[in-house]
Amino acid sequence: MEDNESPVVLAGMTKKFGAAVAVDALDWAPKRGQVTALVGLNGAGKSTTMRVLTRLVRPTEGSVTMRVGDGQRPLSAMIEGPALYPGMSVRRNLEIQRVLTGAPASELKEVAELMEIDDVLGKRVKTLSQGYRQRVAIGAALLASPAVLLLDEPTNALDPEAIQHLRRLIRRTADRNVAVVVSTHQLRELEGTADALTLIHEGKVHYDGSFDAFVGEPSLRVRALDEAATGSLAALLKEQGLAIEWAGNELRAATDGHADLLAAQIFDTAAGAGIKLVELGHVTPTLEEAFQSAISGVRP
Predict the structure, then answer these.
(1) How far apart are CA 46 and CA 52, in angstroms?
(2) What's the average model confidence in pLDDT over 187-206?
């Protein structure tokens, strides 16, 4: 199997609960070596997709195909928080999981080093911070070399320092040629860590591509002295064929990679018409704006 081949492929996957369609003809294939953020509103179909992947529920239609190499476990998951034995030591928790998965004894030391939990192997899980518990749970999930690792809201209840640490460990896990899928409501917590983003809305994929490209190109924010003048400027710019949108009492102009030239054109147009500008500057959509834009079909 090629390194860049997707270890799991969903083709036309549909899941219905009675008459309700939770997931509708989903085609999706997260890549090896990538961190994929799986995002969407509550009820969008994320949890159902995760449950289908973990075989907790069966799809109504379509298929889920696992493609893994020799000696690999197809999939592992941490869903709804760490599933650990709190009264036992970290070492004992990992050992139980190692035996259940059939992983060699050498892997226990390997995942302990990867997750940076060597110093707490002898401690009981109940004495650890939430951040350490998450790291132990992910370490246990990595035993027996899964091709796909599913993490459901792994940063919940973590402080900022623990989130930063966990992001680094998630990145390190993907770099082991694992397809890491993180279901989250907190897009910003994966910024700089996730390679790809899949947005599910009303059971369908609305975006599946680069995390960075999801935000889109920056635009120009333009505001004249008053609303009437702003409207007059908008009419002039539209006559020139520019893509102009109203956003409150200001204008947004798509730059198409030529922000400086466009800014000069807008400035010259306003000056030529005697329109006084009070604002002309670059604005990059936030992740939240990009998310709302994607599910509404309107670019911010």
Answers:
(1) 10
(2) 90
Enter the CATH code of domain 217-284. 3.30.70.790
Instruction: Write down the pLDDT at residue 215.
Output: 81
Residue 70 has pLDDT above 50, yes or no: yes
Could you report the per-residue pLDDT of 263-277, keeping only the tens digit for each? 999 999 999 999 999
Domain at 8-213: CATH code? 3.40.50.300
pLDDT at position 79 is: 80
Q: For residues 156 and 175, what is the distance between their CA atoms, to the nearest angstrom?
A: 23
Least Cα distance to 206 among 22, 13, 27 occurs for 27
Which regions of the chain carry the CATH code 3.30.70.790? Answer: 217-284
Per-residue pLDDT at 3: 47
Positions of CATH 3.40.50.300 in the chain: 8-213
